[in-house]
Design a protein that fits this description.
Shape: globular
Radius of gyration: 24 Å
Number of strands: 3
């Protein structure tokens, strides 16, 4: 029988991990290497300062509504900061292991947030979700070259979409409260909210290229709200739909680095469509197209990468040129895996990664 509670639930656990869970996981040897006292791998000992509540599905007979096991919003935000600063920067384990640890603990944070939703303010939820969205967006690029055994892009995409859509709903709720001048408790200044929001609206567009729903959302904004980065993202979305690969490359180059990273996840599909289009438009065995120009238009690292994709899709190549013939293009080939690009890697190295993900 379900325990239906009328009063709002508010957590009272003031640590990143409830004491009961620390004791249980230490006893059952369920400690993650990033939570152990160094050198105790053979007989794991919990470092209580590093313990973070793990995600656990609700099950019959299991009480997940106990306030003693729920962390209030200020503790959830503190935990997000710890994960995306201290843990994100660690070099003790491969990055995909760090990713899975952070992802699991962020799921637990989101679970606590949902359970307490009736007692958490809009801005508290926004403060918690914004860095989580940035983390998933960054991870999609950072781990795009990893094998499926280390990183599942579909699962990451699912979490990213869920968090981003919830964040946009919270922005809409904020607008509604503002319109009716409802008094709001805010953990972030209004100017800060207005500074970072366009990035997430633009991210929704870039993440869902080819989907009309995000485009319709921003086209309903006033002209003032559509300026800057949102206007640029609209152009990216429109030119993707038009298959204008020439403009797409130029527009992606103008985006902030995090949005560039998300945009290049689409590059393999953009390139495939470009090769398919050019096989029809330049259909001739007697004419050629410079590989170096293709490299610049489609944001390849070098001519060798262009040549590799041309061969994969059946486009014939000479030493410096591609020969597009309609009948040669191999339509049965699936889209290749995304790869890192030097200019994006350099962009991330220019600043502090944790600061970018936590503060934008």
């Amino acid at each position: 029988m379900y325990n239906l509670r009328k009063e709002p639930i508010r957590g009272i656990c003031m640590e990143m991990c409830p004491k009961s869970e620390i004791m249980l996981r230490e006893k059952e040897r369920l400690l993650h290497i990033l939570e152990m006292v160094p050198g105790t791998q053979k007989c794991p000992v919990a470092d209580k300062e590093k313990m973070v509540k793990s995600f656990s599905r609700s099950a019959a007979g299991k009480q997940i509504l106990d306030p003693r096991d729920l962390r209030p919003p200020q503790v959830l935000l503190k935990t997000v900061n710890y994960l995306l600063d201290n843990i994100l920067k660690n070099n003790n384990v491969p990055w995909h292991i760090t990713y899975h640890f952070i992802m699991d603990r962020l799921r637990a944070i989101r679970q606590d947030l949902v359970i307490q939703s009736t007692s958490v303010t809009v801005t508290e939820s926004i403060c918690i979700l914004q860095p989580i969205v940035r983390f998933y967006a960054y991870s999609a690029y950072r781990l795009c070259e990893e094998p499926i055994s280390n990183f599942d892009p579909h699962i990451n995409q699912t979490h990213l979409q869920e968090c981003l859509k919830r964040l946009l709903c919270l922005y809409d709720e904020w607008d509604y409260l503002s319109e009716f001048k409802v008094k709001k408790q805010s953990c972030i200044p209004l100017r800060e909210l207005e500074r970072v929001r366009p990035t997430f609206e633009a991210l929704y567009l870039i993440l869902n290229l080819g989907n009309s729903t995000p485009l319709l959302r921003v086209l309903n904004f006033s002209k003032d709200k559509r300026r800057g980065i949102i206007e640029l993202a609209i152009l990216v979305s429109l030119n993707y739909s038009k298959n204008n690969y020439v403009k797409l490359g130029r527009l992606i180059d103008k985006l902030p680095v995090l949005l560039q990273a998300v945009a290049v996840i689409h590059l393999p599909e953009i390139r495939r469509r470009a090769f398919q289009t050019m096989s029809v438009a330049y259909n001739s065995k007697n004419s050629t197209f410079p590989l170096e120009l293709l490299q610049n238009l489609l944001l390849y690292e070098d001519v060798e990468c262009v040549n590799k994709d041309c061969i994969y899709y059946g486009v014939q190549c000479t030493e410096r040129n591609a020969v597009f013939v309609k009948s040669d293009f191999n339509y049965s080939k699936t889209v290749v895996q995304p790869t890192h690009l030097r200019f994006i890697d350099d962009g991330f190295k220019k600043g502090d990664l944790s600061d970018l993900i936590l503060n934008g």
